[in-house]
Amino acid sequence: MRKGAVRILVADDFAPWRREVRAILQARPEWSVIGEAGDGWQAIQKAEKLRPDLVLLDIGMPGLSGIQAAEDIQRISPGSKIIFLTQDGDVAVRRAALAAGARGYVLKASAVSELIPAISAAVRNGDGTA
Q: How many domains does the chain have?
C-alpha cells in the first residue's frame, strides 16, 4: 500500500471485472486497492476488517445485494464512502442505492469515462454521483 493513498475495497462477483477495476485504480498513485470481495457478505467482512476509505460495490451480487451490504458497511465502518459500480441503470434502484448511503453511482458501461471522476469527487467532496 502506498503511504497516504486512499484505501479502496472492490466488491463484485465477476473476478475478471474486479481485476480490471483494480488495474485501473492501481495506476493512480493516490489510490491503493487494499482488498477484493466476491459477494455482499465478503464485502461486509472485509470492510469491517480493513476499514477502507472507499468501497466500490456492485449491486447484483449473489447472497446479499450490494445495497444490503452498503447498509451494513455504513453501520460497521461509517468512515467508508461507498460508490456503486453496477450494470443496473434503473432509477428506483439508483434511489435505493443512494438512500443506503452511497456517495456515487456509476454504470459499468460508463466506467471508463466516469469511474475516476466519481471516485475523485467522493474523496474530495463526498459526492461521486455520476
A: 1
